[in-house]
Amino acid sequence: MTHVFHRNPKHMLPYAVKGDGIRIVDKEGKSYIDASGGAAVSCLGHSHPAVIAAIKQQLDQIAYAHTSFFSSQAAEDLADFLTSRSPGDLNHAYFLSGGSEAVEASLKLARQYFVEIGQPERHIFIARRQSYHGNTLGALAIGGNEWRRKPFLPLLAPAQHVSPCYPYRDQRSDESAEQYADRLAQELDDTIQNLGPQHVAAFVGETVVGATAGALAPVGDYWKKIRQVCDKHGVLLILDEVMSGMGRTGYLFACEEDGVVPDIMAIAKGLGAGYQPIGAMLASDRIYQAILNGSGFFQHGHTYMGHATACAGALAVQQAIEQDQLLENVRQRGEQLRQELHQALDSHPNVGDIRGRGLFVGVELVQDKTSKQALDPSLKTHAKIKQHAFSQGLMLYPMGGTIDGVHGDHILLAPPFICTESDIQEIVKRLTHTI
Ligand code: PMP
């Protein structure tokens, strides 16, 4: 009997006692390859000496001082690091404790921005059906993942949903990538027109969709076209890079590859790389100035936001990634991972699609490659894959289909950025065996 309220109380979990590079060791001495970085978190692997030293040094100075009284050198330095590397004029970093908090703050900042500039009626959010933005009620209300939302209906203020950019299923064979992207941008345009642009606050999307769809990258100029539609109607663009950001795709910010700059961006996971709970919201000059010149107070805050040890740890993580040029490794190992997965699994009758960017890779499973019919959701294949792989010492992040029965099971791979050529070979070998 455990007194920890576990998420899945029927399931006994092993205790993790040691982390070393890309491996985790449990209490019984069994070793696991962390091929999912937990949930795309541990990008620097486990027990990195420079990160541990930075956290200890900060703890020796001071751990916590409430942000209504103090800033800290660690928070200022981390903000400088992020904003000097972020695209466009995302020059203002607001620190929180995780991804859901970063998304929640982004939604509230968008709403308050419109209040400050005298357009309080802009309150509707548009998001995509295939999306996950977090588990707090606000973030849940905009996410499109039906089974996560279902127990909590009616939600606070549900978003309007438009189609995701899901080329494997939705791009027509007679359509080029740009025509497909145009069609999706037109759908957003029509949706905004129907709602009345004067009521719409923001469009929210994961730059590369993670947990709900398994590393779905946009095609063509999808994000540039979406940005144009938003601008045409005065609607803000919020990018959720909680999973896809901080180097996961081979770029510090995934949207750099798409040549688009959002008004607000949410980041977390790889920011602290699992060493400390931390998330952040990056805001553009225009948004920041509206608060500064308006009420002068952003009406959102959390007790642990801007925690000095979390900021010190995150800065050490990001400096290590930069010093060791790990983004180059992410691009190379990601290429290798996709190539080897294609070689090993293209002939498998149930592997429909292998996709992604950098070390953010998805494998979609289907009943039949031609019809792309999803696996029967009641089989819970994703859960069996997770369990089997784990018993073989491989951590994966598989997800089940949504309850519409169309979008099926998939497996997300997000190994640490430090993984080597032979680590990738071992991951592919164990994954192939599991499938
Ligand atoms: N947004 C995205 C895209 C995510 O993948 C996640 C976590 N899976 C979240 C938000 C929520 O982050 P957290 O679990 O840190 O609250």
Automatic annotation (TrEMBL):
Keyword flag Isomerase: no
Membrane spanning residue stretches: none
InterPro entries (UniProt xref): Aminotrans_3, Aminotrans_3_PPA_site, PyrdxlP-dep_Trfase, PyrdxlP-dep_Trfase_major, PyrdxlP-dep_Trfase_small
Ranges in a coiled coil: 320-347
Keyword Coiled coil on entry: yes
PROSITE patterns membership: AA_TRANSFER_CLASS_3
GO molecular function: transaminase activity
SUPFAM superfamilies (UniProt xref): PLP-dependent transferases
Cofactor: pyridoxal 5'-phosphate
Source taxon at top rank: Bacteria
Keywords recorded for this protein, A-Z: Aminotransferase, Coiled coil, Pyridoxal phosphate, Transferase
UniProt record similarity statement: Belongs to the class-III pyridoxal-phosphate-dependent aminotransferase family.
PANTHER family referenced in this protein's UniProt entry, alphabetically: AMINOTRANSFERASE, AMINOTRANSFERASE CLASS-III
Protein name: Aspartate aminotransferase family protein
Natural source organism: Alcaligenes aquatilis
